Predict the structure of Pentatricopeptide repeat-containing protein.
Amino acid sequence: MVRWLPTPERAAKFIKKLRKCPTLSTKKVQSQESFDQLQQQHRAMNSLIKFATETQAVEEEDDPGSPKLLSALIHSFAAHNCDPTPKAYDFILKTLSSSSRFLHIPAVLCHLEAVERFETPEFILVDLMKSLCKGGRFQEAINLFCSIPKFRCVPSVLSLNALLSSLCGTREGLEFVPDVLLKCGQMGIRIGDSSLRILIKALSTEGSVHRAINLLKYLISIEMTLDAGLSSVILSALCGKEDYSIDILGFLEEMEKLGFCPGLGDYTNVIKYLVKISKGNDALDVLNRMKTDGFKPTIACYTWVLHGLIEAKEYARAENVFDELLVFGLVPNIYIYNLHISGLCKQNRIEEAISMIGFMEELCCTPNETSYEIVFLALHQAGQLGRASELWKDMQSRGVNLNLNTHLTIPEGFVGEGSMKEAF
């Protein structure tokens, strides 16, 4: 019988197969060690949470530099022979900030920076910055933002926007915004559109319109452009304020230097603001500029411009504007007609105003109480009580009901003239 002998190739293959066995065993050991480490970290975390819950983490008043929570973290993880995790630091920082024990936070951050080696998740520092700002510790929040790289973390737009949003939440925090912008430049962080949107909306909402203007000037100085949406937000906020000292046309010019092209809504907001500050002629100039830029003014634009011109006693210009909107094919609403009637009455052209009421009906625009009240007041002031009586009867025949003030005005005029019969 011949005994089978392995060839050298078979022997080498068999030896190689045997050598693989220790490698597989090592992987299993490493997997078991990782599992054990996770278990130890979990137990250490539970011990830390239990300590904080039972003792409420009362700090030593005479030793603020050594908070009990930090000591508990160190000892809990050391007792379980494992290193502290980012989750543990997040728990400690949130516990301290939620209980307003901000004096103990620097010690925790110092230990996190100097002792630990893991990359600190950005959300931990972002949450802490928000808590610091909420507690009114704005400078500490800014210092933390600037020191983010020390915690082996790269600051992103997430941390910048979180800080800006928190600072812009209060008037006190707004004072620190220029400092943050300056530090962003020093840190090489670019201020993007999302950050600018947070800034501008907050500044405008808080009524800090002058800060918004200063921000625009800053953007001009660094040759940065704004998108149309941001510019419209700024302009709308400025036009909506009761601060009548703003040079809105100058501000619009500054934005155009940044490449902003006003739209129909932007022009409308500017016209409204100019009328509110009794600058009807400037409002008319903006209306004409709209047409030059290729925009067809809406009926709302004409309403505001007419109101401003009549208030400014620019009656001739007001009539031209009224004729223009008719030429453009726009249908006047009741407010337009009432403004035109008011302008005629202020020029003592009362009969034309009464004729306008009849003209309104022909165009299927029914005069309302205000239409008649304007004319009645003009007749009363002009002493034309007979004409007022005729209009009163005509109005009653049409079934128009006036308010109490008008009911009292007409009899008062007749009584003043001694015509008791007409009054009653």
Remarks:
- The mean pLDDT is 78.
- Residues 67-190 form one domain.
- The CA atoms of residues 40 and 80 lie 6 Å apart.
